User: Fold this.
Amino acid sequence: MAANASQQAERSLAERHSAVSEMPDELRADVRMLGELLGRVIAEDGGPDLLADVERLRKAVIAARRRELSVDEVAAMVAEWPVDRSVQIARAFTCYFHLVNLAEEHYRIRILRSRDTGEAPLPESLAAAVGELKHDLGDDELARLIAELEFRPVLTAHPTEARRRAVATAIQRVSVQLAEYNAPDRGAHERQEAHRHLLEEIDLLWRTAQLRHTKLDPLDEVRTAMAAFDETLFRTVPRIYRSLDAALAEGTGRRAPLARAYIRYGSWIGGDRDGNPNVTARVTREAVLIQAEHVLTALENATTRIGRSLTVWNGDSPPSKDLVEALTAAADDHPELVSELAKRSPREPHRQWLLFVAAKIAATRRRDLDLAYRSPDDLLTDLRLCQSSLVAAGAARQAYGEVQHLIWQVETFGFHLAELEVRQHSQVHAAALREIAEGVLSERTEEVLATIRMIAWIQERFGVTACSRYVVSFTRSADDIAAVYELAEHALGGRAPVLDVVPLFESGEDLANSADVLAGMLRLPAVRKRVEANGRRLEVMLGYSDSAKELGPAAATLKLYDAQAELAAWAQANDVRLTLFHGRGGALGRGGGPANRAVLGQAPGSVSGRFKVTEQGEVIFARYGHPAIALRHIEQVTNAVLLASTPSVESRTADAAACYRVLAERVASASEHAYRSLTEAPGFPEWFGLVSPLEELGSLRLGSRPARRGLGAPRSLDDLRAIPWVFAWAQTRVNLPGWYGLGSGLLAATRPDPATPGDPGPGLAELRQAYREWPLFASLMDNAEMSLAKTDREIAARYLALGGRPDFAEQVLAEYDLTRTLVLAVTGHARLLESRRVLSRAVQLRDPYVDALSHLQLRALAALRAEEPLSEAERERLETLLLLSVNGVAAGLQNTG
Assistant:
């Protein structure tokens, strides 16, 4: 084992030297400047001695990576500092990671823009997909695919975003000033002022408390998510459609668009009450009202801006008869308002009309019913009236430019912004029905009925599309679906809302039985009626987190693939347009990883132009925090959805799946056995609680939802939610949920099958071939490689030793060594992430600084786990150090939960 640790250290040293040498000059300059500014702030606030200690630790962990110091020497140095000093040092490294993340984001944006030369479509872009599909399918089949295209990202509040909102806001201000400083057209004095302002904002980031002092409530989570809409989503969506329209044909902006609004956002924030007693009917009502306030404000501002700029003179571009009549009717109903608009915009009827529309949107937001719109469809009618009048007047560019953008925004967001989805556990519904039968209702059952009444209220106020999906966790049979419709009858009788009840299959057994459950659902009168009314559409959700926690990453991946294939075949046989809703988390241990590559690995027939996926916690801001990155992400996913829906890709995927089926089953079976032998061993949950900061994570106040389903320490993994399971393992630098068991599975696939005498086994060559030819297997291997790259064996061993079970520690480290060796052998890489240079560089450069925070965290964790009694003040200081280091490690590793 010592030899393995030494070999890994030597490899890590070589890899880091390579990463440093490959670091682009622009990125290096930004990281160095931001680091120097942070150092100045630290010295000004904490004195030169604090900065000296930060530098001492920084140099020590780098030296340890070079094998010039031992980790024991680094740990001894950290132990010498008073806890309060360690807290300050942890703050410094956490702030540094926030700044490094920012520098990398800015560099990524610069690279995206530099590659967009216009000479050829960007890889994985909409233009690239359309070009390929035109060649493969022809124009008619491409038009059919575009007409059916759907992308439904669903924002969720899973608590993996460790930063406070105040910290995120401070980082955003630093980002603005960094962009100002790097702007190429700045003069010397402007650049000097930007530098001064950048230092000011970094100073504020340093002085902003990293830890929350109060627990988030669900409405805080709603407001946090709204920042992504306000800053990015509203403005990015029309750019996506414009990009698609330009790819489909020449002349975008002066002809009727060929691209349609295919994106529909959803949200669980304020609607997901599974295990979260803080989400009530009142919270759901407030959540949808907050969303409506934001989208109506955005629509009002956009319409006002476009209206004010639409100075089209009627002498040159006369209004249509319909627009004249509409303005006359408006003047009859609202004479003062229209008269004022006419006075401000004489002989500019199109401008008058759009400003009148803006006034009506404002009235809708204020609930001024005399002027308000009744529905988004009414608003679209008015916008299209203006558009058609402009076309008739010969002003096609005005009609299909900004006015079209506004139409696309209304079609995408409506008056509710995102469809609010409700989720509840099947056992809660079963208990509610029992109580109703007995005639004595608990507070929880009353809340279930109140939630259904609230759905009806939302539909009456904002329309059915604002809230109709009801997700049932742990669906085991069609009875679990029938229960929701029965409860709706109890809640409102004949006035029950329109419900699309969505089964959520999470465990391995439930995934295997999913098609049978759907067959039972179709026999339910309420489901049959809804399916017939909505064009034979049905939705099913697949849970990645709990299946991975139960089975391990390799077995869960195959189970999910098999479920998708079976569900797709069932849907085709039953003439059902099935949408699979992928409950993927941000972390690799919860189904995370590049979404576009995951789409291409789906079972044939399971995409069919439709993709729905959860976007949670830290991922929301990683993907939607900046317009350029959001645009790229959505284009990449749409590219993959279009390509995955073509007969050629489906055929290749089906052939590869059939070819490597036996191989995959052997890998999955052995990996699941290895995974369960660890996680189901007596004493494992208690050991996990000792070696990780699991128990302390609740003090971070990450979100409104409890970390576990019961009270007290978890006695089995069933008690623990998948999010803290993955998050805590990331903190230990083990990242176990992303790779554990895969090595045993790959090893079994290279050996003879004992059940088949004389069978030599597929061998390494077939595994390598599967990696090259089967997207699903390639995605599994690549994601495991990323998790392994973020694992540090030497530091992980120190965490694992805290549990007092050397047998568990040795089992984990042995599986790590095996998995690392075989993943490299299968991929053909000499080092982890060899084929992904940008990611590899980021991981290698960050590792020493994450090491610093890990040593600080280990110091706190060891003291908290020791048998010696601590005073209340000592425990509080140690917990502060621990939680600050958790924040920093999360920022350093990224996609951790």
About this structure: The radius of gyration is 29 Å. The first strand starts at residue 150 and ends at 156. Residues 164 and 212 are 6 Å apart (CA to CA). DSSP finds 40 helices and nine strands in the chain.
